Amino acid sequence: MTKFVFRLPDVGEGTTEAEIVAWHVAVGDRVEEDQPLADVMTDKATVEMTTPVSGVIVALHGELGEMAPVGQALATIEIEGAEADAAETIAPPAPTAAPAKPVAKPEAAPAPVAKPAPVARAEGPRPLASPAVRHRADELRIDLASVPGTGPSGRISQDDLSRFLAGGGSIAPAPASSLVRREGVEQIKVIGLRRKIAEKMQDAKRRIPHFAYVEEVDVTELEDLRVHLNATKAPDQPRLTLLPFFVRALTRTLPRFPQINARFDDDAGIVHRHAPVHMGIATQTPNGLIVPVLRHAEARDMWDCAAEIARLAQAARDGKATMEELSGSTITLTSLGPLGGITTTPIINHPEVAIIGPNKMVERPVVRHGQIVVRRMMNLSSSFDHRVVDGYDAAEFIQAVKALLEHPATLFIDRP
Length: 416
Prior knowledge:
alpha+beta, CATH 2.40.50.100, Chloramphenicol Acetyltransferase, 7-stranded mixed β-sheet, 4-stranded antiparallel β-sheet, 8 helices
């Protein structure tokens, strides 16, 4: 028997340490080569570590939330046979990085392949599954121990969950309502992405003197146009939400307000005004709020914009967004959709200087040309960095965006 020590490798980008955010194995588990071992988070991305050898886990080094320097032991694996003879020559593997950004036009679908057969799992306290799979199983009230996994050592994937449901898999009944006193306090350690979000929001609120501006927008004609375009779109065109229209309105307005499409390096005292619009699209995921970046939004038509927003949102929810797709935004658009409420005061995505937040669209009576009529109304909330953007300029900017949204034909008219 030989004990192989797996150490945290250099994950690149000048990283010297990473936070342990998830263990996929436990002491005593049998692991196979390339099986997921742990997830670690750097300042820029979450990286999945896989084991380079097969064997039995005899020790795990580090608690969830602990910062591990490069070279620190993560796991000790007991190996035997031919693998033990070669153990000294095995180097820690390169991390499993997020896939490269796909091209705009996908290739022809590959020929179907046979689905892997479920792998029997040894009895244990915790079936192998990613955090996203566990979150979905919790929402559906599915006991993962009853789901056959097709991954290494019975690891459960999203497809395995879908096949389990399609095959009539049992779902735990919802708990009965009762008037029973509850006791106890659950302690949740703030780690991983949630800690990064907390630190970023705290830093933004501490460093940036925010001021909010809210304007009411009549989106009746805009919504009529959106419904019409979706009803007459080509089969290969994506469905339009309101977001592409807001992106279009912002990209048409920002050239007149270059101080708003900017990033402020407050340490150096320099405002970087950007010609391209790299629009951050705030996206809620099972792991928290992530802001993938719609690059060169000013050069995209409505359909391309809608397709890219959908692709980025899905990549963020699946945990597959690349570092490039999660950095470099110059202004952020955040929307709670139908849950948008009456108004919000969004926190600026530092080091940007502005964030725009559409609220919920509602039908209500308004006075129009001396008559009371029912219109679709929406509040447009926004926050600005008062060190860079004056209140007058912010108001003028939002009024210009409002004019485009209330007269949607002007979104498509080129003006000198």
